Amino acid sequence: MIEKIAKLKKEKNAVILAHFYQPNEIQAIADFVGDSLDLSRKAADCDADIIIFCGVHFMAGSAKILSPDKTVMIPEMNAGCPMADMVTAEDIKRLRKEHPDAAVVAYINSSVEVKAECDICCTSSNAIKIVNSLPNDEIIFVPDKNLGSYAQQFTDKKVNLFSGYCPVHNRITVADIEKARAAHPGVEILVHPECPEDVVAAADFVGSTAQIIDYSSNSDKKEFVIGTEYGVLYPLEKKNPDKKFYMLAENFTCANMKKTTLEDVLECLETGKNEIEIDEEIRRKASASLLRMLEVK
Ligand code: SF4
Q1: Which of 19, 142, 145, 256 best tests ligand 1's pocket when mutated (most atoms within 8 Å of CB)?
Q2: Is the CB–ligand 1 distance for residue 122 below 6 Å?
Q3: pLDDT tens digit string along 106-165?
Q4: Which of 17, 50, 205, 281 has a CA-to-CA distance to 225 between 20 and 30 Å?
Q5: What domains lie within the chain, and their CATH numbers?
């Protein structure tokens, strides 16, 4: 199957992009592995005609927003992100009426429609920078209450939090941190800012998936406890064969990210199934929010 995928990919001038949380066998066949923003940039910059985006729906959507002339496909159409589905464009319209002076920042984990309604997007790597780049003293941050509350700690602005959360990261507790400290004394605990506020406060390092990979790869230390989705172990161990990584909690797995199979990737290439299509007017507005983010240095 892997040989068939490689052959078809070449024939059709396609690239396979995979998120860090994808199953190992998908990361292994991908041309690029990265976080959602990095992959969208790769999608826009590469000269392929077809992008097979192995991730969840909003990620393939972001790739299509930035690459309107390319064919973008997602191997498993039902791979959604529950957090992205927690906020709608209607919610943003309502919140704008309640906070007329506030700017709306939408985490990239949101639908195309939400991106089209917000003022600017952000990622887990740049949320603090984006919030502080805005002239407004008041911010509406959607959908992730945990990432918004993390950003609030690094700004004087008033950040109005939405009620969304990632079910995978939000279930981590301080008890998990205490358990990991007892099992691995002296080992640093690195967590994602989608984890709850008290977990973030109790950890040694907070960063996006890419920042966690960079931090542990550049450190002289040899062991780390990892507080984000299980799939990140694949790039971590590949990059750092001499280091040991322990998961902060059992079953730290995003079921939606694990829906992609090699069969689905092959079927996309063979049949062109699951192409992402976006209304041009909405795409244009969503693109402006993403591009505004990319312009923030
Ligand atoms: S890990 Fe959380 S935020 Fe990421 S895709 Fe899964 S549910 Fe969504």
Answers
A1: 256
A2: no
A3: 999 999 999 999 999 999 999 999 999 999 999 999 999 999 999 999 999 999 999 999
A4: 17
A5: 2-80+257-276 (3.40.50.10800), 84-165 (3.40.50.10800), 172-247 (3.40.50.10800)
